Amino acid sequence: MPKLKVDGIEVEVPQGATVLQACEAAGKEIPRFCYHERLSIAGNCRMCLVEVKPGPPKPQASCALPAADNQEVFTTTPMVKNAREGIMEFLLINHPLDCPICDQGGECDLQDQSVAYGRGHSRYAENKRAVTEKYMGPIVKTIMTRCIQCTRCVRFAEEVAGVEEIGAIYRGENMQITSYLEEAVTSELSGNVVDLCPVGALTSKPYAYEARPWELKKTLTIDVMDAVGTNIRLDSRGRQVLRCVPRINEDVNEEWAHDKTRHAVDGLVRRRLDRPYVRQGGKLVPVSWDEAFRAIAAVDHGCSVAAVAGDLVDCETMYAAKALVRALGGDRFEGRQTGMDYDTSSLAAVNFNTTIAGTERADAILLVGTNLRWEAPLVNTRVRKAIKKGAKVFAIGPETELTYKAEWLGDDLSLLNDLPQAVRDAFGGAERPMVIVGGAALKGGHGAALGLVAALGLIKDGWNGFNVVHMAAARMGGLMLGYAAKGGIADLHDAKLTFFLGADEVDYTRFTGFKVYVGHHGDAGAHHADVVLPGVSYAEKSGTYVNLEGRVQRGERAVFAPGDAREDWSIFRAMSDVLGCTLPFDSLAGLREEMFAAVPALRHQGLAQYDWTMPAVGGSASGTIAGYPIKDFYLTNAICRASPTMQRCSAELVHGQDFAEAAE
Question: Which residue range or ranges hold the 4Fe-4S Mo/W bis-MGD-type domain (predicted)?
């Protein structure tokens, strides 16, 4: 480990570290534009210049210079100061004076560093260069005259997203960053380039000219668009969420978020349910809360009561609904809306046991019935990291573009019974083998996939390579709370009274009893319900969520719900009074204590302290995988379907519809 001095401070850094990282270890701030911790080193901007001895008598780029023993680094000498001022002067030669109208204003690296390291005047009197705008799709807005060619976006697209559709054309002063043939960028991670851009060249198109960062209230919460549990920050003004940005969590999402997480928030204020409704004469009629509760109380259910949890609900809502159903004499609960049915006797058999971060360490990976790019994009980026370290990937299912090379074995589930020799050879020599089972294989191939635990030696000391990918934020929490009927959702079809908790993907035609929908959007559930009770979205309540690896996380309320909508747990608490079976809690804190007593693993945030012992079961599989559960990445839930941005993404990026720009 090299030892060196930075401004007289001695530091020791890992082998292979750069001088810039050594300076940061010493507590020195080094300005940079092109350097980013998660991307390869480009050395484009030269803003990170420092003076190094021994070495040539000139400033050197610290981002590309390896740290070595006995180096002396100086970050504040007159040479360094003059060099940084000169670099900043060059960068600003062609940069337009757009700060008053630039969406990056207030969050701009160029603004901050020009104040801290730039000269107080300009010597440039020539005309500035202008660059035509580029089209990058419905997510990213471009003002390429501002671009300083740091190439962060290019490196992100190639190295992290795996969709090489952004690059540079021309050379020298004429260099321009553009998408391939100026077409829309098709990556589901494209919105991250907005955060990466250190200037205002790439900004968020849906958020354009909406607000300044200092006007916004910032709330830390958890994303519910998939089961990864991305840590996010919701920025709101008044009663509306204006944008969503990721937070850093190395164990979950690093610092990335996919486009659905970022831009579905404009659906939070559209198609909202803001008052109770009761179906009368075939039509939903607005009523008071008391009238809606009395309509439910009038149902002769005879203890035949059930609850179906949707994909976006929190644990508190599911627990409150379960408590009410139990109080009414019912005992049927289900969270797998689409009819999926698999063994839940051991939660380890349906958990992502390797953990999301652990995926990077795998050296042999078998994907079974999963389009990981759409089902869990931020797990897919981890698989790409594993491949860069030498991992070999095999896949069973219909061929699809995963952003990396995989050896496709076919779409026959019977392959699980007798894997090809090439797979056995690769896994036989693997120290950290890994199997990832998706929704397309769970129903018919879960048992056979579990048999691979022993056949491929997936469990080793400190390593469990068996993993299941869920697509719903509520799934693992629901399974921990018992939302898994023995016969799947078909077991609930004959219930005389069924509560649907934001469940919009259910085949409602199969339910013959009285249907009560508790949700926040006027989607499929509200259209089929006999009583509609307006609940709140994930942005409007504090809640507990468990991600696909069994990590317990809590989100906070960012805004208040519209109209007469109420928090879901409080709806069930108020309803219990009218139904004559009062629930034993009057506050969220009281509900949580009841929930923690029932499921202690939900009490502490982090990986759940649960019995993750793998079951010793197996089985055979047959049939073919006709397709993957997600047909349209951008329209997977009620919030997305209400979002104009997601509708545009679906039309353009999935279905190939052309959109003319205003100039055309």
Answer: 216-272
